[in-house]
Amino acid sequence: MKIVVIGGTGLIGSKLVNQLREHGHEAVAAAPNTGVNTLTGEGLAEALKDASVVVDVSNSPSWDDAAVLNFFETSTRNLLSYEAAEGVRHHVALSVVGTERLTESGYFRAKIAQEKLIKEGSIPYSIVHATQFYEFLKGLADISMAGDTVHLPPVLFQPMAADDVASAVGRIAVGQPVNGIVEIAGPEQFRVDELVRRRLASLEDPREVIADPNARYDGAKVSEKTLLPGNNARLGETSFETWLSQPAAQIPTAHRQPTGEAW
Ligand SMILES: NC(=O)c1ccc[n+]([C@@H]2O[C@H](COP(=O)([O-])OP(=O)(O)OC[C@H]3O[C@@H](n4cnc5c(N)ncnc54)[C@H](OP(=O)(O)O)[C@@H]3O)[C@@H](O)[C@H]2O)c1
């Protein structure tokens, strides 16, 4: 089965492409540096030729409110229209647990717009809502600075390893479209400030993390359970401690900052 992975060079995309190939699928990594640009449509028709499934794990290079909205709306419109022309049978998109509750954040308004286009479109779909990736914890500190300190709300979340995200997305991609949302999450709950503090300590990053009940999560007010998945979430196996002991966790992150610079 030919599966095109949009954002196939990114953190989740590169893992997903490898896992799909290991399972014998023809997986194509589509991204600007492989000649496919979902914003302009460049290379899309060729990449999607004879594809059965398209998995969108791309992300906007800029998280500025207007730029990220433009990215997810334009990319998704282009993708769905090229997919219809090529007869694609399943559109899979990766989004975030709690997206619908985070409307105060420009990033999440853009993800809501992406999901709305998919739901209203003609291609059978599966939207995967994942919790925060362990790989994103340092990035979360970076976007939560107030002066020299990191301010985070001490609310619950249930983060997961990018490897487990990729496996779950891969299983969903080769299955039947659910025409709805599937939630995936990690095996344990933590308080956001606590885990970011542990992650920074593991990197010998000296920044202080303050538990601040008034701090926002990427611009959105959150309460105790806003970031938690529901009871039916599929859980990944990798615990935070296991992930932390892996060589990949020794570097700040394996992927890129929203600005496009190396972290
Ligand atoms: N971070 C989290 O904790 C979290 C949690 C749940 C869900 N998610 C979702 O997971 C998804 C993937 O995140 P990630 O961290 O794996 O992303 P990432 O590492 O930043 O990768 C982004 C990918 O998108 C590609 N891309 C950028 N502009 C493009 C364009 N115009 N056309 C085609 N491809 C383009 C990039 O290609 P180049 O490398 O060529 O630029 C790259 O392959 C996002 O949609 C995010 O909302 C994230």
Biggest β-sheet: count, sense, barrel?
Answer: 7 strands, parallel
Output the radius of gyration.
Answer: 18 Å
Number of strands: 12
Mean pLDDT reading: 95
Number of helices: 8
Given as residue ranges, the uncertain stretches (5+ residues, pLDDT < 50) are: 254-263
**In one word, what is the shape?**
globular
Q: What hetero molecules are bound to the protein chains?
A: NADP nicotinamide-adenine-dinucleotide phosphate
Structural class: alpha/beta
End-to-end separation: 35 Å
Instruction: Give the DSSP E fraction (strand runs of 2 or more residues).
Output: 15-25%
Query: What is the N-to-C order of secondary-structure elements (H for helix, E for strand)?
Result: EHEHEHEHEHEEEHEEHEEH
Strand arrangement within the widest β-sheet reads 2-1-3-4-5-9-12
Helical coverage, percent range: 25-40%
Structure description:
The chain has helices spanning 11-22, 44-48, 65-86, 106-120, 137-142, 162-174, 192-202, 240-244; strands spanning 2-6, 26-30, 53-56, 90-96, 125-130, 145-146, 149-152, 156-157, 181-185, 190-191, 209-211, 234-235. Helix 1 (11-22) crosses helix 6 and helix 3 packs parallel to helix 4 (106-120). It has 263 residues and is an alpha/beta fold. The protein has eight helices and twelve strands. A seven-stranded parallel β-sheet has the order 2-1-3-4-5-9-12, with helices on both faces. Bound molecules: NADP nicotinamide-adenine-dinucleotide phosphate. Residues 6-7, 9-13, 31-33, 36-39, 57-59, 61, 94-96, 111, 130, 132-133, 136, 255-256 line the site of NADP nicotinamide-adenine-dinucleotide phosphate (NAP). NADP nicotinamide-adenine-dinucleotide phosphate is lined by residues 6-7, 9-13, 31-33, 36-39, 57-59, 61, 94-96, 111, 130, 132-133, 136, 255-256.
